[in-house]
C-alpha cells in the first residue's frame, strides 16, 4: 500500500520505506457535539485514537509521548525514549516532532525531525499506534502561516490555537498596556477568526467587546495607542501574494428547533458538513434570518426592526444593542464549532441589517 502524502514543516523530510496500512477511522458521525469525538462543548479539536480504542484530546499546549512518568502518554516499550515525540496542533494540522533515538513514524514512514499530520493518518511510536482524528480540518485549503508583530518590533508566530494576545499574565503574547485577554484567535475552516475580549480597535475602528471577526493579512489591532499587526508570513517573505482561501457559503442549510434552542446543519460546496447547536435566543436569530417576515427572503439583508420583533415579539424594550450582542454571540458559537462566521452571518457595513450568507441556489429547510 502506498502511504498518503503529507506536508513537511520547515523543510523536513520523511524517510522512505514501506507504508503501513492506516488504522480505520472510528465509526463516529462527523457532526454534532454529542456524537463527534472531535467536538466538545462546541469547540473543534484534534484527537488521538489509539489502536486499543482509547481516545485522547490534543490540547493547545500539545502532548508529550515518552517513557517518563510525567509524559502525557507514558510508553511502556523499552525502545521508546524518555521524551520520544511531541505532538502540537497548528493551523496546518497536527505537528509531530520526533525526539527519540528510535523512529517516530507516520503511515509507516519514519519522520525526520518534524512533519505535519492530517486527519486519518497514523502516528506510530514504540509501544503505541495512534490515528489522528481531526474531523473539522478543512481539506484542500492552504492555511497561511500567521505571525504577529509586537510593539517591540519583533515577529512572533501564531501557531497554537486558540492563541491570546493581551496584557494579562495568562496571555500567550503579552502586550504592555493592553487589556487582559484583549484578543483570542481561533482556526475556522482554513482561516483565522478573533474574539474581542477588551477595548481594542481594528484598523482604526473600535470593536465591541464580544465581537467576532475574521482576520485578514495586514490587520492592525490597537489599544491605548499600542499596535499589533497580524500578517501571513508567506506574503511577508515574498513566497506568496495570494490571500487566504475563502470559505464558501453553504449550499444547503437545515435548521431544526429543539426544546431549548436549535441545531444548524451546514453543507458546503466542497462536501464538508458541519453542525452547531445554538441556545434559544441564538436559535431564534438564525430562524429569523432563514425565514424572515416582512416579505424578505433568506439571503437578503433583514432590517434590525424586523429581526427585533421576530426574536423578542411584544418586547419593545429590546434594541440594537441587544441585537448586536446576540449577533456577536451567535458568530462566536459558529467560530467555536470551527465554522467561519463570516461565511454564514454578515452584518451590513453601516449596521442596521443582517443576512445569512448562502451560495447561489442554496437549499434552505427549517423544521
What's the average pLDDT? 80
Instruction: Please indicate the count of domains.
Output: 3
Number of strands: 31
> Number of helix segments?
4
Q: In one word, what is the shape?
A: globular
Report on this model:
- It is a single chain.
- The chain contains 4 helices and 31 strands.
- With 367 residues, it is mainly beta.
- The protein folds into 3 domains: 125 residues, Tumour Suppressor Smad4 (Sandwich), CATH 2.60.200.20; 91 residues, Tumour Suppressor Smad4 (Sandwich), CATH 2.60.200; 115 residues, Winged helix-like DNA-binding domain superfamily/Winged helix DNA-binding domain (Arc Repressor Mutant, subunit A, Orthogonal Bundle), CATH 1.10.10.10.
- It has a 6-stranded antiparallel sheet with strand order 4-3-13-12-9-10, with no helix packed on it.
- Strand 18 and strand 19 form a beta hairpin.
- Helix 2 packs across helix 4.
- The longest helix is centred in the C-terminal third of the chain and has 17 residues.
- The radius of gyration is 22 Å and the shape is globular.
- The termini are far apart.
